[in-house]
Every structure is written in C-alpha cells, then in structure tokens.
Amino acid sequence: MSKSKIKAGVTAAVIALAALIIAGNAATIVPAGHTGVIVTLGEVSQNVLDEGFHFKAPFIQSVQSISNKIQVYETPASAVSKDLQTVSSTIAVNYRLVSNKSAEMYQNVGMDYQTVLITPVVQECMKAATAKYTAEQLITERTSVGDEVKAELDHKLNDYGIYIEKFNIVNFDFSAEFNAAIEAKQVAEQNLIKTQTEQKQQIVIAEAEAKKKVIAANAEAEAILAKAEAQADANKKIAESLSDKVLMYNQIDKWDGVMPKVTSGNNGSLMIEIPVEEANQSAEYAAP
C-alpha cells in the first residue's frame, strides 16, 4: 500500500473520530425527574432543559442535571425546651426543588444545597419551635410542633425554590432523670385514676344498697298500711253489723248460770245482790 493511501486512511479515521466526538458533545439527555441547567463557557443560562434528548453547542456548552424529585433528608437535632430540658431528636424532611429555580440554585448555591441551605435552616427552626414548648408538651403535642417547624421551613426555603412536602419528628429523647420523672408521674396518675374508679364503684354500690333499703322500707310500710286499712275496714263492718239483740244473744250464749252480784236496772241504777243470811241478820237488827 502506498504512503498516500495510508495517509488518506489515517486522515479519514481522524475525521470520523472527530465527528464522533463532536456529535457526542453536541447532544445531551436529561434524566426523568431532572432539569438540565445550561452552562456556556462558565455562564449559567436561565433557560433550562426539560427531561429528554437535547442538542447543545459542542465543547462550549455543558448541561448540569439537577433533581426535581422528592428527596429525603434525615438528621439528628439538639435543642432546649421551654423548661430548660435538653432535647435530642431525630427528624426527617421530605423536600423537592422546583424546576424553574434549578438554574438560580445552581448559580447561587451549587449542587450541595442540602448542606448549604437545608441543614442549617432545619436546625434553626427546630431550636426555635422547641423553645416554645415544655418537655412534656413536646411529647403530647408532637404533631403541633412538627406542623410549626414545617411552616417555618417553607417560609425560609420557598424563596430558593425548595418546598417541604413532609416533616416528621421521628423521636424525642430526654435525660435519664427527666424520663424517670415522667415515668413516676404516669404511675402516680394511673394510681390516682385507679383510686378514683374504686371510690366511684363504692359510691355506686352504697347508693344501690341504700336504694334497696328504701324500697324495702316503703314496701313494708305499704304492707303495714294496707293491713291496718283492712283491719279498720273489718272493724267498721263488724261494728255496723252489731245490734242490741245480737249483743244480748251473745251475753246469754256466754252466761254460766250464776247471777251477777251487780247489775244495772232499767232506770240506770245499780242493783246489788245480798245473800239471804246477811239479809235476815239485817232485819233482826232493824226490829224494835
């Protein structure tokens, strides 16, 4: 093979390789859920590329892909409560960067916006919210605390294009002394509830017994009254049925044959029976 043909072949190969390199640098693909930020010789363009295939100026333009998907950021946080209790917590933040702020974020903050922006703002908002609640309230009102922190994060980060989708306080942790005090308080409250419940049960039982006695007493009184009324009614009927003839018949029926020593005369005067011997002696004393 002649030198001219070899030279021509090498030239063709170089041109083909150069063409491939140029073609490779003249196109870019933006992944799904991302935005392509165009950088031309170091200058950031405010016109961004959507996901998909795009052409660009080879060698002088580059495309930086920035995620607009929901991302999860989890970190420990330490703060002091309103009653000066040290509070350690673990928090999880779901956030996303809106596409129309991608170029501005890349230009002003860079790719590590989570470390530069989100981390310090999360810590600041968590400390501010925790200081408004006592340690006990942080436990009982965790949802309210989380909502307050989320609202403050949105207020501070929305201007950068970062929106908080969800904020969770995974857990709160306190000192061993405080945990022991909380446990003792819970035990005391449970004992108090138990005592109150037992007292209420005793009151209910006592009221039931008293009611039972009242019912029994009322029933007994009603029975006595009914018996008295029945007896009075019977006596009335007996009294109405009595007459002089009936009374005389009863006296005669019950007479034992012995004359009474004292009787009542028709004129209402008393008649006294005197034995015969005593009568004769009286007559002798009375003779002249």
Structure description:
- With 288 residues, the chain is an alpha+beta fold.
- Among the domains are: 3-67, no CATH class; 71-174, 2-Layer Sandwich (Tetrahydropterin Synthase, Chain A).
- 55% of the residues lie in helices and 24% in strands.
- The chain has eight helices and ten strands.
- A hairpin with a 2-residue loop joins strand 2 and strand 3 (43-49).
- The N and C termini lie far apart (217 Å).
Please specify the SSE layout and strand pairing.
Layout: H1 3-25, E1 27-30, E2 34-40, E3 43-49, E4 52-55, E5 61-67, E6 71-80, E7 86-97, H2 102-108, H3 113-130, H4 135-140, H5 142-157, E8 162-173, H6 176-241, H7 244-254, E9 262-264, E10 270-272, H8 276-286
Antiparallel strand pairs: 1-4, 2-3, 2-5, 6-7, 7-8, 9-10
Give keywords.
about 290 residues, alpha+beta, Tetrahydropterin Synthase, Chain A, three-stranded antiparallel β-sheet, 8 helices, 10 strands, about 25% strand, rod-shaped
Brief overview:
The protein has 288 residues and is an alpha+beta fold.
